Amino acid sequence: MKKTIKVRHRNFGSSYKYTVGRDILRNEISKAKNKYRKIVIVTDETIDSLYLNDFENDFEIAKVVIKPGEQSKSFQTLEYILNEFSRFGLKRNSLVVVVGGGVVGDVAGFAASVYMRGIDFWQVPTTLVAMVDSAIGGKTGINTEYGKNLAGAFYNPKKIISDLIFLDKLPEKEVKNGLAEMFKHCLIADKKLLDGLIENPKSLDSVLNSAKVKIKIVEKDVLEKKERKYLNVGHTIAHAIEKDSNFEIAHGQAVAIGIMLEAQISYGLGLVKKSDYEYILAGLNKLGLETDYTIRNFESFIEFMRADKKNAEAVPTFALVIVPGKKIAVLEVSIDNITKILNA
Ligand SMILES: NC(=O)c1ccc[n+]([C@@H]2O[C@H](COP(=O)([O-])OP(=O)(O)OC[C@H]3O[C@@H](n4cnc5c(N)ncnc54)[C@H](O)[C@@H]3O)[C@@H](O)[C@H]2O)c1
After folding, report:
1. Rounded CA separation 280/264 (Å)
2. CA–CA distance from 106 to each of 121, 141, 228, 262 (Å)?
3. Which strand (E) or helix (H) includes residue 21?
4. 61 CB less than 6 Å from ligand 1?
């Protein structure tokens, strides 16, 4: 079984399809062979060895394989991918199939956006995070020595294909990273999604329901002027925790802690009801997401929040839950208030 929905981008006047199903990639590639002169897969070594060993032979298509991990979101990897595209003779009528988590999606999507000023590409997300979040919305990019995602482009794929087969061997830690983002989607858009998520996070419906939340938001606001900011729930604190922990805390876990601490701020400011605050804490608990964290250096932790590139001024901005599943507010919170509430 598979389900497909259309993603329409008002800002770009374009649309593409998001499909989720089991064992659907092979069939899609077979069909694409009639349309495109050349097809290249870009993936990482882990995904390649687990799932893509026979793709080259079965489909007679080339593969570009990069190292797994955040360090691949670099100028060097981008250059390597672009040179491989040239070596394989990709032209404007070629297709790049990006098979991977957010790292491969970001760097290879960026490569597709600049190669010959942009060629067709598909996102084939292989982590839960990528299926419900990073593959959707057209953000591609790499890190520079000055920070994360500082070079990139908004560039939409021609298709997103979430093939559930890739979740079979996804490590538990990566499942939890995805769960934190999926819970965030429940908090933004629909509390009712939580039960299904707890029961079977890797099911077709859980993935589709969660992806739909992001799709609806980016359809309205791809350039992050308004609604897309709601997706930052938990993230102002999460980014500071990642830095405070010297990146020992994984992004998903930092998001779970961020959701908890930001709910505390919302409650401390009198913006969220006690029962809703408790609902948020219980939800994290039910999903088995750990939220214990002791801030190592409070002063630099605050500085990290002030310096976040998403703040217009040096005052931390939060997407705070006001009513779970119904209302989010994007607000600046003073350093005094943050300090008082988090130290209470
Ligand atoms: N573009 C966006 O809008 C957006 C949004 C959120 C996050 N991101 C980016 O996404 C990146 C994180 O992505 P991620 O969480 O998917 O991590 P990832 O891409 O680093 O993948 C995590 C690990 O899981 C492995 N892996 C991937 N799929 C697998 C599978 N099916 N089975 C077994 N192992 C598998 C990978 O090799 C890697 O080691 C960050 O760089 C972040 O900045 C981008």
Report:
1. 10
2. 12, 5, 18, 27
3. strand 14-21
4. no
Phi and psi at 18, nearest 5°, equal -110, 120
> What whole-number distance in Å separates Cα of residue 44 and Cα of residue 64?
8
**String of DSSP letters for 113-176:** HHGGG--EEEEEE-SHHIIIIITSS-EEEEEETTEEEEEEEE---SEEEEEGGGGTT--HHHHH
pTM exceeds 0.85, yes or no: yes
Identity of residue 108: A
Is 185 catalytic? The answer is: no
CA dist 39 and 59 (Å) reads 9
Helix, strand, coil percentages (3-state) for the chain, rounded to 5, are 50, 20, 30
Paired tokens of 19: 């499909």
Report the C-alpha gap between 60 and 56 in whole angstroms: 5
Q: Is the CB of 73 under 6 A from ligand 1?
A: yes
Amino acid at 189: A
Tens-digit pLDDT profile for residues 218-254: 888 766 777 888 999 999 999 999 999 999 999 999 9
